[in-house]
Design brief:
This protein is an alpha+beta fold. Helices cover 36% and strands 30% of the residues.
């Protein structure tokens, strides 16, 4: 199962996320759920960096299927819009593949 935890500040603004695990929907290379989550995740990270030039921190481990991503200047409307778009896409995947994707919110300090 892929688990994604969104990091929220005290005002419910998203400042990052942790994504861990493999969806386990199908064999490697044929797992459409893992591919969908990966595409959304990588597009969001690249968009933050390239399009918004946001100050980002990334830790990843491909073998574990682990990503920890945080944006330092997360208060901007553009950053929040990208995070909300990412979350919206993942919520739809979770709704259709409950056994493979789980989303949670984690309130913590940036």
């Amino acid at each position: 199962m892929t688990e994604i935890s969104f990091y929220l500040d005290g005002e419910d603004r998203i400042f990052g996320f942790e994504c861990e695990g493999h969806a386990g929907f199908a064999k490697f290379g044929k797992d459409i759920v893992c591919s969908a989550v990966s595409a959304l995740t990588i597009t969001t990270i690249n968009s933050m960096d390239t399009l918004l030039e946001a100050s980002c921190e990334l830790i990843s481990d491909e073998k574990r299927g682990y990503i920890d991503f945080r944006v330092n200047n997360y208060e901007s409307e553009s950053v929040q819009l990208l995070f909300k778009s990412y979350k919206l896409g993942l919520e739809e995947i979770e709704r259709n593949y409950k056994k493979n994707v789980k989303l949670t919110n984690r309130r913590c300090k940036p």
